[in-house]
Amino acid sequence: MSHFSIQCRNCNKILENAYCAFCEHCKDALLVTQYHDTRFSESAASGVWRFNWLPVHEPSISQPGPVVYRSQGLANELGLTNLFIAFNGYWPEKGALLETCTFKEFEAAIVLQNARENNIEGLIVASAGNTARAFAHLSATTGFPAVIVVPRMCLGEMWYLESSSVVPTLAINDGDYSDAIDVAKRIAIATGFPFEGGVKNIAKRDGLGIVMLEAMSKIGKLPDHYVQAVGSGTGAVGAWEMAERFVKDGRFGSRLPKLHLGQNLPFAPMLHAWEKNSRTLFPRDLDPALISQITTRVLSTRYPAYSVTGGVYDALTATGGRMYGVENDAVYAGMEAFLQAEGIDIVPASGVAVAVLKDAVRSGGIRKNETVLLNITGGGEKRLRKDKKTHTVIPKFVSKAIPDKELEELLCPILKKTC
Ligand SMILES: [Zn+2]
User: Fold this and answer.
1) 213 alpha carbon – ligand 1 mean position (Å)
2) Percent of the chain at pLDDT exceeding 70
3) pTM value?
4) How much is the pLDDT for 177?
5) Residue 418: pLDDT band by 50, 70, 90 thresholds?
């Protein structure tokens, strides 16, 4: 007997055997995990497996969680009295032990375990960088096959904990993250391994929601505000869904945290749509030329989970949230401010989040004594390199126009699979 069911966000239908699916009646609505136990609880298990609200039954590997702590440095600088930081990365002095230095490690751990329990034999993953590293690492440590597809333009910032020979990785020569998603979907059809599903995958959203689980375990009540940088928005949706579960539980407060979400200008399709109160993204904001101008390539998807029922638009609406645009200069300033105030390096996407927090405080969107959860989605890469060797990603380069037949010939032998 499973401890959860999967339910359509729109028509509330309960679906059986719904792996990475949409409701048959509501193609544009996300499915959401309904945990039968509506009270949050923690077992004696270690790391993230102690939480009762995860869609897995028998986890086989150990998986550390984020570190949530009350800020002194940044809080003083901004005049905040209740700023909590969820640090996702490597900072052993603080107890943070994610060697992939990203919260995508939770996504990968939960997705792979959930896939295994759904009798899936392998997964095709598209990524603009940190998701690739997380899946490559979990694939290597658990022996679960994965093929990773990334855009060539992101390779400069990419690294793996393991050598790329362990995890087959394709780089798209002539395209961006969205083209990588397209090729990944074609590989899925050619090899019979499913595409990891993006925002449709409940395990992905619940995995990213671990940040909220850890925060509630530590803080004991829902924050007034939640701050994060967004690319696809999947992490923010995961945080909102977890917050809804805590509201339903009743012991953690009755108000959803307001989402304060940031994109890196000039590529900010969700910001521009939200400012116009539009559920639909504007095509002019999805111009690939804009992507080449941003610092944070990991935030560069042209297919964000914005319009879908249960996506970012609904999350912002439900929480009274706001979108922010952050210039490159402010991204670097945010990274530097965090390093000086908290004492650890963070990745550019987290620099976006710090800039959003500053902006929200300055503009009065966040008041001094309110409780704030700042999600530092990645950090400690420089710290990690003092302790560990990391690897350059050496992919096979392909064109986005590669015929299906060639994909099959290229990948099926590596996957030891008859396609
Ligand atoms: Zn439905």
Assistant:
1) 27
2) 99
3) 0.96
4) 86
5) low
Distance of CA 296 from the midpoint of ligand 1 (Å): 35
For ligand 1, the distance from its centroid to the CA atom of residue 20, given in whole angstroms, is 14
Which residue in the block uniquely carries the two structure tokens 């392909």? 398
Q: Which of 352, 353, 264 is nearest to 83 (CA)?
A: 353
Q: How far apart are CA 257 and CA 63, in angstroms?
A: 26
- CA separation, residue 392 to residues 163, 389, 395 (Å): 8, 10, 9
Question: 106: which 2 tokens?
Answer: 């939770």
CA atoms within 13 A on the CB side of 246: 26
* Pairing of the two strands 82-91 and 4-8: unpaired
Ligand 1 center to residue 14 CA distance, Å?
A: 9
Alpha-carbon gap, residue 169 to 148, rounded angstroms? 5
Residue carrying structure tokens 């890196």: 264
C-alpha distance from residue 4 to each of 55, 64, 305 (Å) = 7, 23, 23
277 Cβ contact partners less than 8 Å away, ≥ 6 residues apart: none
Q: How far apart are CA 386 and CA 316, in angstroms?
A: 39
Joined together, the tokens standing for residue 86 give 């969820």
Copy the structure tokens of residue 232.
């696809």
What digits encode the pLDDT tens for the residues 17-45? 778 888 888 989 999 999 999 999 999 99
- CA–centroid distance, 191 to ligand 1, in Å, is 29
**What structural domains and CATH numbers belong to the chain?**
67-99+205-384 (3.40.50.1100), 121-193+390-411 (3.40.50.1100)
- Encoded tokens for 300: 């560069």
What is the pLDDT averaged over residues 370-389? 97
